[in-house]
Amino acid sequence: LYQIYGSENVTPTFHWIMHMGDQIRRFGPVHGFWTYLFERLNKLLKGFTTNGHKSGVMEVTFARELKREMSLSRLVSTF
């Protein structure tokens, strides 16, 4: 991979390494199927406080938490 993409463009995680060879053979270049962003967002969602809410109300809680995270990120990036 380093020869193909260059070391500055390759940051594999352990889970991804387990499947990397097969996925490249099946799907071609990594940039066509890379999902790290979505996996990172799943980690973010798992960390949200749900206040014990079940379905329905929990979605609103997730939306509020996501908005808060995005606002904080935007605020920090302006400094």
UniProtKB/TrEMBL annotation:
Gene source species: Calocera cornea HHB12733
The protein, known as: Uncharacterized protein
Domain of life assignment: Eukaryota
